[in-house]
Amino acid sequence: MTTKKLSISSEDFISTFQSIIENNEDMIENLNLDMYVFHSDNNFVCYYDKDTRLISDEQTKSAAWVNPLINNKASIDHIVTDSGVKQFVYSCPIFIDQHSDFHLIVPCHKKEDELHFSLQILADYIGYLVVNQRTKEDIFLKSEYQEKICEATSEGYLTINKYGELTYLNRVGGKILDVDPKKATGKHVSELFDYYEQMIEVLHTGKGWENRDFFISRPSRRIQLVKSSIPIVDDDNQELVGSIFIFREMKVVRDMVGNIVGNKARFDFADFKYKNSEMVEFVELAKSAAKTDSSVLIESESGTGKELIAQAIHNHSHRCNGPFITIDCSSIPRDLVESELFGYVEGAFTGARKNGRFGKFELAHGGTIFLDEIGEMPLEMQSKLLRVIQSRTVTRIGGNKPTPINFRIIAATNRNLEEEIDNGNFRLDLFYRLNVIHLSIPPLRNRLEDIPILANLFIEKTATREGRVPPLLTDEALSDLKKYSWPGNVRELENVMERATLLAEDIITSIHLPKHISSTHTITNNSTCIQNEIGETSMEWEKVEHQLIVDTLEKANNNKSKTAKILGISRSALYDKLKKYQIK
Ligand SMILES: Nc1ncnc2c1ncn2[C@@H]1O[C@H](COP(=O)(O)OP(=O)(O)OP(=O)(O)O)[C@@H](O)[C@H]1O
Fold it and tell me: Among residues 345, 439, 424, 324, which one has the least CA distance to residue 382?
């Protein structure tokens, strides 16, 4: 085994030498000798003057005579000093971790084996103290570093010894567990925590675990923790000496996940544009719904702004700082709905992730859960959802512990749920639970006065995105927009205006609108001619758009959210386009 060489400076050496002199005054006085210390590279380190009893690191006396004495062996030599005096010199290597970095050189008038023996003991003692001092400093520094790291982290750290006694708890840990680290240290975990059995289990099995979740009862509250445990084994005898526990509050983990996944509501009521009096009433009702914590059911046609209103309600409610979790019940594969909503524990089914997974309900803790297209939810899931709403708890698939969740539900559908109930597709009891506050957004065809404001909003949005001046919407085009029935509501208008803005230069006229909306082709020969021209231009545009979508999809590895983001359109707009161009 190679010994690691301890690096030690002359300054450190002198300070250790100094403390030996001070602490062993009698012995040093008895020796009554001047002492030199040299480094193995023949450099002078320090000198102890027996008369003044001081150590000096200034080479006041020439010591060239000492050079031949510096070697790894203890020796006694009869030499002539620089001043011409003949004397014996004892040379004793000072071993520091088996390396003789320093040498104790002691001139003396007569040769005494016993004295040489005592000096070698002194040299060994110096070596021992230097190592000891350095090790103590290293250990101190290491534990200081470790403590500083543990205190600076946002996670809770706790250590127990092999007897199950708490040996360390950091400040964050103390706060999470509602325990004073100073008072708790030294106590057995069974006196401190109600989940101590899992902690002791690590000491019995010697096996740690990662990211398990726990519920613990504290005097003031019940909290859910995510915890990992690392057993500590003594390298020398392979004995288990304790365990470290690292933990976080689940709430913090959820917030973190939420921030990464982007579970935030973006829209506010100010983003909702309208003029129509029915809409004024609707928004007032939605605003008062925001002040309550009751479930809301929004039943409206597709594209009317249900999600926008759900986000605005959340942002206007006392839950505005909590997560806003959207679940699109129509897009989750049937057999994945349960795990998406409620999560699962490790080993719940083949292919289940190690350590299990959160469900969307858990992620919504403290916030709002938006169940979009609730009418598409499979019947068997409806009863599970009802249970969750009633009990306000979620049990992960394969688990047996219900987790209390604080959430508010806003559900939306473009189906007529009462009809679905009559047809046996929707549970009446779930409908009652969801329909505490009922909201319905009027379809766009019933609020023509909203068309100009919305059309201009979308023209501006597209032009800004393209870095252009927004084109002017002509009365002719506006009149066409008002005549159309808008089955796809505001979303359809948004797409039409986006397309028109891209096709037009300074003004948007009828010719920039899709054939089924535009009146141009029915008016004059001249217009028909223009229509034909524009028809070709539109076809050109569609070709370009088609290719653009295909290329972007390829770039985004067929990830639709990413593709929609790159193209600067909503996911649903992308789906519409995929359908339109029959892109699989
Ligand atoms: N009054 C409005 N003011 C501004 N934008 C609106 C308004 N209504 C709808 N929108 C916009 O229309 C688009 C469709 O809205 P949203 O997705 O909320 O509709 P939806 O009713 O949830 O649709 P679906 O039923 O298909 O899920 C969004 O881009 C939204 O911002």
Answer: 424
Ligand 1: which residue has its CA nearest to atom 5? 272
Please tell me whether residues 241 and 325 are part of one structural domain. Answer: no
- In this prediction, does ipTM exceed 0.90? yes
Q: Which residues line ligand 1 (CB under 6 A)?
A: 271-274, 300, 302-308, 372, 414, 454, 490-491, 494, 570, 572
d(CA 584, CA 576): 12
Atom of ligand 1 nearest to the CA of 307: 18
**Is residue 531 a part of any domain in this protein?**
yes
Residue pair 50/34 in contact (Cβ under 8 Å)? The answer is yes
Residue at a domain's end among 381, 415, 439:
439
Q: Which domain, by its residues, includes 227?
A: 153-250
- Quick one: which atom of ligand 1 is closest to the CA of 450? 1
Q: What tokens does 374 get?
A: 């609730």
Is residue 116 domain-shared with residue 175, that is, in the same domain? Answer: no
- pTM of the entire predicted model: 0.60
Which has the closest alpha carbon to 158: 144, 170, 146? 170
On whether residue 257 sits in a domain, the answer given is no
pLDDT in tens, the chain (584 residues): 344 455 677 787 888 888 888 888 888 888 888 888 888 777 788 888 888 888 888 765 556 666 666 666 777 777 766 667 777 888 888 888 777 778 888 888 777 778 888 888 888 888 888 888 777 777 777 778 878 888 888 889 999 998 989 999 999 999 888 889 999 999 998 888 877 888 888 888 888 888 777 777 777 777 778 888 999 888 777 888 899 999 988 877 777 776 666 677 789 999 999 999 999 999 999 999 999 999 999 999 989 999 999 999 999 999 998 889 998 888 888 778 888 899 888 777 777 676 677 888 988 888 999 999 999 898 888 999 999 999 999 998 888 888 888 999 999 999 899 999 999 999 999 999 999 999 999 999 999 999 999 999 999 999 999 898 999 999 999 999 999 988 889 999 999 999 999 988 889 998 889 888 887 643 333 333 333 334 444 555 677 678 778 888 887 888 888 888 767 677 888 888 898 888 87
Looking at the fold, whether 400 and 267 belong to one and the same domain comes out as: yes
CATH of the domain at 330: 3.40.50.300
Do 163 and 274 lie in one domain? The reply is no
The CA distance from 198 to 204, in Å, is 10
Q: Specify the number of domains making up the chain.
A: 4
Cα gap 559→569, rounded to integer Å? 14
Query: Does any domain span residue 45?
Result: yes
Q: Is 326 helix (H, G, I), strand (E, B) or coil?
A: strand
Q: Which of 144, 169, 189 is the last residue of a domain?
A: 144
- How far is the centre of ligand 1, averaged over its atoms, from the C-alpha of 488 (Å)? 10
Question: Hey, whose CA ends up nearest to atom 13 of ligand 1?
Answer: 491
